[in-house]
Please model this.
Amino acid sequence: MPPPARKTDMTTATSLAIAQNRFGLGLRGDEAAPGTGLVDQFPRYDPRPPAIAAVPGSAAMVVRFRDYQAQQIAARMAQMQAAMAAERPAPIVSPAVSPPGPGKPQRSLAQKALRSDINAQFRESYGDAARARIVAALNTTAPFAERLVHFWANHFAVSADKLETLALAGTMEFEAIRPNIAGRFVDLLLAVERHPAMLVFLDQAKSIGPDSALGQAARNRRGRKLPGLNENLGREILELHTLGVGSGYTQADVQELARALTGWSIGGFTRQAIAIEAPEGQFVFQPGWHQPGDRAIMGRRYRQQGEAQAAAILGDLAVHPATAHHLATKLARHFVADVPPPALVDRLARAHIESGGDLMAVYRVLVAAPEAWAMPMPKFKTPWDWTISALRGIGARDAPDLKIVGALAELGQPIWRPGSPAGWDDVAASWAAPDALLRRVEIAERIASLVGDRIDARLLAPRLLPGVLSPATAAAIANCARPQQGLALLLAAPEFLRR
Model:
């Protein structure tokens, strides 16, 4: 759908800059501009491009972690048996000095070696997935759809800050988000909440109802203590993924949703006495872990049993007016302005409600909105946005050899590592501090050094910033002594920092 050009004084060049920078990932310097159509990009969108298809999936990562846990247990058991079998007299030592326990140094070294090995494996897997994400962004023929992938990945944020999620965060984006950005929100929601990355990140995979069959069995035999009920996933579904803060849900609603979610787990991830066999590394509902009974959430009662109970709740949450308003606000903030226009938020929310959560219906309202095509460019690029647009600008087709994943960490936005389920901030105040701008200048110089003097920034600037390149920036680039200096200046120019 083209922008409403006749309703504004916008030039064709300016509308192209908005379409490809605000809604897309930045114009490429090595190919013709794709035009201002946005919704019509979706038939070209590839949810599984070659770079991503080559990355091992979540099931393989879960099995690898499960095997690591089994090795750790075996190592501990072996050390305990060796210590018990050892028959040697206790050494005579000073009362002020405690002797090391039997086998402690060896056990510590063995555990460290195992952890170091799995950490190295998972870091390599994380790096491969991050590079695949970069390659997909550089080569996409549907940049609006690709930007929506990044938007939804940040909305449903998982953080690769602990070993269990290090190799899983990327797989959730690839497996649950990419295939569902153009369908119904409920399908996207269910795919994400059932994905191993989310289940592990928010400690849901071992959440067991106290009155479930497993909970009762544990009480009867007074054996090993169970993990018990975990509220993390239920809380974040209500607070971040659907209704939003201040929407009227209570702590009682969080607890009820947590009870409904009991039994949502991962095949092969945990061993319990009462559990059904399931494909390793894939979502499974464990009926023996589910807290029985009806649930009451947001004034509505759910009498479904088993897995269907939480699914029914999520189905209602997906089309709730508060969810529609929450999602509309975040979309308007991401694409239009740090302070979302209230009228646009209302129109987006209405489209969500009237369409039953059809995401394409919401996107159509967004790209047709006059507010979305306003000038000057209101959004400050996040480090991810800026880095990808810079690489696209120089014509990169692959992640260049400047440790780009590390460069994003230097800029303050390491891939899939926001540090909390709330994701990265989407406003300029979080990214435009003087020291952050200085780091962008340094990275711009590194990127420019990749191409040396092969790119003439005087010719590239109007291609990347059609209709928005200022005379001052054009003059500054023209006055640079070398093309490389001009390119670095272009990538750090005020116009290039915004979209």
